[in-house]
């Protein structure tokens, strides 16, 4: 029996009885990305404010990513059952309360607790893409999701620069005030513009959990997922250790650091463009392989320059553009590969691979913070990044080898 898809209602901007405008989805995804890194130039000032050390304040990144990863396992199933609109509005409301808590925190542990609550904004990142799939046929979804992820690429690019300028002018709290205002605006826009796009009670978390074993036993799924986790893990390690290097190794002020720190996002933007342009022609696996190799090359050259005594803030941050470029090629293509292993379990695969990517990133981000000391320079961070980047090359190599055995073309 063939099911005829229900025609998608006509979208009307600021009408909560119709599907949302693309601008609303872009801003939802951008806010989620901005919340991850706008405050990073302020980590040294926050360390002094709370009277702690960098290893503790750096947990504001690692713990945030860990909660983010766990939530990705369940948020899709919850929204399937209760609808996209209430879950999104609830996640945004919790984010606003958590941001107020960060501003009012009297000690580092209260701050970290509210920072973990801020991870509720992952609902905006995860569901903005799910809503696209609800709204348009599969053939159009990839293009529309591309616009949404473009917002996710631009926000990290400008976030640290904005955060650094705000810190220089008003102090570290200014970045959280900016997130509070942005969260309130996006909450209002979501309430006014986002009509429900998904029918409720489509299975909930139980069936999703029962699908896990089928993916767990697939070597190709694990290969793609590990490639995702290890390649992006190099970036997450940079996310955790970059602020320390900028402050303690190069002595950059917050505004300058904010400008330099966004270098990977420039490369990521270009990598996304190349993926959209050439993935069909070159193939998913080869795009992933070239992306991982570019990632390794950027980090390897960076580390070599430091060992040769020629490392500087310009080379350190400038070569991180190649890390972003590589990830811009790896992440969309490896995600497509992971979802293609079991097409009927695409939603479950998306949650599992996303959780693995963010969870591994959280661990590497925390590890980078632990490894860096005043006497270590940038070496431990670059060595950690290079190790994970090489692991991604090995992982996608194993996927390609297995597919040759199975005679599968992706």
pLDDT under 50 segments (min length 5)? Answer: 1-7
CATH architecture of the largest domain: Up-down Bundle
Largest sheet: none
Secondary-structure-based class equals mainly alpha
**Helix-strand sequence:** HHHHHHHHHHHHHHHHHH
Indicate how many domains the architecture comprises.
2
Please report the first level of CATH classification, the CATH class of the largest domain.
Mainly Alpha
Short description:
By secondary structure, the chain is an all-alpha fold. Helix content is 80%, strand content 0%.
Question: Would you mind describing this structure in some detail?
Answer:
The chain is mostly helical. The chain folds into two domains: 18-201, Up-down Bundle (Growth Hormone, Chain: A); 204-403, MFS general substrate transporter like domains (Growth Hormone, Chain: A), CATH 1.20.1250.20. The chain contains 18 helices and no strands. The chain has helices spanning 22-37, 43-50, 54-57, 59-82, 84-104, 108-117, 122-135, 138-170, 173-193, 205-216, 219-249, 254-261, 263-282, 284-307, 313-318, 320-341, 346-371, 379-406. Mean pLDDT is 83; it is low at 1-7.
Strand and helix map with partners:
Layout: H1 22-37, H2 43-50, H3 54-57, H4 59-82, H5 84-104, H6 108-117, H7 122-135, H8 138-170, H9 173-193, H10 205-216, H11 219-249, H12 254-261, H13 263-282, H14 284-307, H15 313-318, H16 320-341, H17 346-371, H18 379-406
Helix pairs in contact: 1-7, 1-8, 1-9, 4-5, 4-6, 4-7, 4-17, 5-6, 5-7, 5-9, 7-8, 8-12, 8-13, 10-17, 11-16, 11-17, 11-18, 13-14, 13-16, 14-16, 14-18, 16-17
